Amino acid sequence: MNTEVSERPAATRHRGVFHPLTVAAVDRLTDDAVAIAFDVPDDLAEEFRFVQGQHLTIRCELDGRELRRNYSICSPAPDGPLRIAVKRLEDGSFSAFANERLRPGDVLDVMHPLGGFHIPLTPDQARAHVAVAAGSGITPVLSLITTTLAAEPSSTFTLVYGNRTARDVMFLEELQDVKDRYPQRFQLINVLSREVGESPVSSGRIDADKLDLLFTHLIAPDEVDHFYLCGPSGLVRLVRDDLRARGVRGDHVHYELFHAEDEEPPPRRRHTEAGGAAAATSHVRFTLDGRTTTVDVDPDTETVLGAALRVRDDAPYACRGGVCGTCRAKLCEGEVDMARNYALEPDELAAGYVLTCQSRPLTENVVVDYDA
Ligand code: FES
Fold first, then answer.
1. Rounded CA gap, 182 and 184, in Å?
2. Nearest CA to ligand 1 atom 3
3. Which of 56, 256, 257, 319 to mutate to test ligand 1, by most ligand atoms within 8 A of the CB atom?
4. CA–CA separation, 297 vs 303, rounded Å?
5. Percent helix, strand, coil in the chain (nearest 5)?
6. Number of the ligand 1 atom closest to the C-alpha atom of 305
7. Residue 316 Cα to ligand 1 middle (Å)
8. Within the chain, where are the H helices?
């Protein structure tokens, strides 16, 4: 049974609302990657204002199927054009479409920017920032680098960037421009897994041995204020665990994954925190854009997001893998079991936020607020 129970003024940014944006440019970055810039009309300028490191969700219909994909914004500065980069993936339908068929003048549905892969910047800080990225993990990092160096004139930024070959390096020109502009404050360490470079650091994969070389000879982790990691989950976990083992505090390491690995989510917990039995069915009440709806959920087969989508097709989501954070909502009542979380920061968890695509109810009543 689904019941509409109340209405309240909607939040300024409507969660889950897509806007049709015209593609202004499609520029080839490498043999298998393009940058896509969008025209943002004046009346949507506020809605699409972004912070470095954030991402966009794109929705489009291909071959009769709705696809949603998340891409990091790679604009060199927050006041630059709204731009994403799409690298062609094996079996990737949208990435193939974007690389082969998308043209300026086409229209795509785009959701407003989301994501917390950034820290506040202040001009009086003199900090050392280091990013470790691989492949298209450079996309949010490019924005982080340019924005940070412009906003903190006394800070430095080092980028360790892993690719297979020099031809795979995305944003080569932009990175060269950053080097020319900030020769004393920007350092680029390219690591190519299939080419022999000038030094042991620059050839081979970024693995435990490479990190040992880097963190012993080139970068002193205890002198770095903030680390940013972006790439496949295996790489991000490797670097994060390595830094932890070297004594770097978790709140100094920020990371963003492309997508979760195809690991099976763990089975739902069978008991609540207090030890009570998990409910067999639950009533989930959720508020989205000011409207509150109740829906019954079988927690063994459905998540909070899945149930919400049955009755509201505007419920927000993109990856459905616990990575992008688009489905974030505040848990106001009850308890859920969240299988995976690669998106929420510790302070968001402490404030009661959950990823609804990963959350299955444990208590009979669960109340979540997407607008909070
Ligand atoms: S939809 Fe991406 S984290 Fe839930």
1. 6
2. 322
3. 319
4. 8
5. 25, 35, 40
6. 4
7. 8
8. 93-100, 138-151, 172-181, 208-213, 233-245, 304-311, 346-350
Give residue 44's identity as a one-letter amino acid code: L
The pocket around ligand 1, CB under 6 angstroms, is made up of: 317-320, 322-327, 343, 355, 357
Q: Tens digit of pLDDT for each residue in 47-91?
A: 999 999 999 999 999 989 999 999 999 987 767 889 999 999 888
Ligand 1 centroid to residue 260 C-alpha, Å: 10
How many angstroms is it from 6 CA to the middle of ligand 1?
26
What span, in angstroms and rounded, lies between the C-alpha atoms of 191 and 304? 42
Ligand 1 atom nearest residue 342's Cα: 3
- Give the integer Cα–Cα distance in Å for 153 and 150: 6
Over the stretch 112-167, which tens digit does the pLDDT of each residue have? 998 889 999 999 999 999 999 999 999 999 999 999 999 999 999 999 999 999 99
CA 303 to chain centre: 21
CB-CB contact of 60 with 20 (8 Å): no
Q: Among the atoms of ligand 1, which is closest to the Cα of residue 318? A: 1
Domains and CATH numbers, the chain: 19-111 (2.40.30.10), 128-257 (3.40.50.80), 264-369 (3.10.20.30)
Ligand 1 center from residue 141 Cα (angstroms): 21
